[in-house]
Amino acid sequence: MARGSRLARLAALGLLGVATLTGCAMPNNEFWRFGWPEGITEQSQDMRELWTGSVIAALIVGFLVWGLILYSVVAHRKRSDELPKQTAYNLPLEIVYTILPFLIIAGLFFYTVVVQNRVMERSDEPDETIAVNAFKWNWQFVYPETTGADGEPVNTVGSTEEIPILVVPTERTIRFEVASADVIHSFWVPEFLFKLDVIPGNENGRDNVFEVTVQEEGAYVGRCAELCGTYHAYMNFEVRAVSGDEYDAYLAAREDGMDTYEALEEIGQPGTASTTTPLDLIESKTTSEQQSDNNG
């Protein structure tokens, strides 16, 4: 019983530490990201640390379990035909492996809620507001605080021939108000380490709004992460993160009547998307028809 109690205390000490690991600050190099991309927003760092802590906790539990299995295999291997001593139960150990899984889950749940609340937190007055409209099978990005040459807010809408480019400034709080015109879509930028389901009929309600602060300039692919129909896989867009001055110049050019391509070229940016290409619908339909004929 003393040996079992020591083992129970050792297991309790190891597993109890796991529950607190997800709250530790984690290094942000490629190894410790465990396959995740490097986030480019302030909010992404919180999510990356939660992921890293969760994986480390899972590895510790895994190594402990594997170690106990190996110990049991070696220490209790068959030595003779004599039946070994039978133990009906070990109350301290049973208490440990009943309570500790609950503590681990509670710890992970706690830190998940903390990070979720932090990521979904909204400021009273964001620096920029952008409306995102999803539809089968493309995107429209509207800058509601602007007025274009036609008297309507500046906007960019994608088509079968053109990938829409969402231009955003760095180091500013950006509020995205996301809406769907038809079915459930999902706004996903992998480098944000975040995606948000776009629920139709919510009229940009509280569940379809989030904020980020982009920290790095560059071009990043965005996708729909919810299966929404035939051309879901090609429902892509590009996030173009530029400096605050370039962003202001871009919007000014759009308000003067330039289209997205011309305004981007005006501020020294490529006018077309570089991270993804549009779907060739004619070729895809021809291939689909040929497959139907062959199956027929």
Automatic annotation (TrEMBL):
Cofactor: Cu cation
First-listed, main subcellular location of the protein, grouped into a coarse class: membrane
Subcellular location: Cell membrane; Membrane
Region entry Disordered, spans: 268-296
Listed name of the protein: Cytochrome c oxidase subunit 2
Protein family per UniProt: Belongs to the cytochrome c oxidase subunit 2 family.
TM helices/strands, residue ranges: 51-74, 95-114
Residue stretches making up the Cytochrome oxidase subunit II copper A binding domain: 125-253
Chain intervals with Polar residues compositional bias: 271-296
Known catalytic reactions: 4 Fe(II)-[cytochrome c] + O2 + 8 H(+)(in) = 4 Fe(III)-[cytochrome c] + 2 H2O + 4 H(+)(out)
Family annotation (InterPro entries): CcO_II, CcO_II-like_C, Copper_CuA, Cupredoxin, Cyt_c_oxidase_su2, Cyt_c_oxidase_su2_TM_dom, Cyt_c_oxidase_su2_TM_sf
Membrane topology: Multi-pass membrane protein
Key words, A-Z: Copper, Electron transport, Membrane, Metal-binding, Respiratory chain, Translocase, Transmembrane, Transmembrane helix, Transport
Pfam families, per database record: COX2, COX2_TM
Functional description taken from the UniProt entry: Subunits I and II form the functional core of the enzyme complex. Electrons originating in cytochrome c are transferred via heme a and Cu(A) to the binuclear center formed by heme a3 and Cu(B).
Species of the source: Blastococcus deserti
Domain of life according to the entry: Bacteria
Lineage: Bacteria, Bacillati, Actinomycetota, Actinomycetes, Geodermatophilales
EC id: 7.1.1.9
